[in-house]
Amino acid sequence: MAALLFLKSVLIGLSIAAPVGPIGLLCIQRTLGHGARIGFISGLGAAAADACYGALGAFGIGAITRAFVALATPLAIVGALFLAWMGLKMLRATPPERAARASDPVHALPAFVSVFLLTLSNPLTILSFVAIFATLSGGEALAGVDGLVMVLGVFCGSALWWLALSLGVSTIRHRLGVWAMQWIDRTAGVFLLGFAAWQLVRVIV
User: pTM of this prediction?
Assistant: First the structure.
């Protein structure tokens, strides 16, 4: 029974992580610029945030859930501003800057934390987790092993996607020249600005 619950939770983690969005673009861009390790660690930040939301859904922690939902607007605005900053940074990068950045070491912790916080900046995602986990648990909060199995499954499913994505993207990394990387940076920057604008409009409207 626990094995089946774990597999279902893994599929949930995969389905949540797989759609291409701002987090996916950041992980792709970081993989191209700094290698599969940094890309995967960035993805782990998203997986950890998914696990946090999964825990709230699995254990039915109502007070914390309501607090996150109440903070939806300010967190969404902060997340949108961060996306816009990242997008502008990518748009303004020149080929020499891009080449230098690719050779500079990038610390794993900032890569992890930035994506973790960005993923948490959309607390309405918790509503999806609450609905999904309520279905799996029969509408009741879980306790003990079952809850931990579900949270671990979500994390593993999400992490599996980010591992596959970073390894896949890294296979073409060294085939791209500086100008191709600049084009990719600028395209990603435009998309990030678009995501930021959409998030702001959604909050305001």
Answer: 0.76
* 201/189 Cα distance (integer angstroms): 18
Are 160 and 47 in contact, with CB atoms under 8 Å apart?
no
Residue type, 102: A
User: Which structure tokens are listed for 134?
Assistant: 């309520």
pLDDT single digits (tens) 19-66: 777 888 888 888 988 889 999 999 999 999 888 887 776 676 555 666
Token pair in block for residue 189: 């920057």
CA–CA gap between residue 199 and residue 144 (Å, rounded): 36
Cα-Cα-Cα-Cα torsion 30, 37, 15, 24, nearest 10 degrees, comes to 0
- Please, where are the H alpha helices in 18-94? 22-34, 36-59, 62-70, 72-92
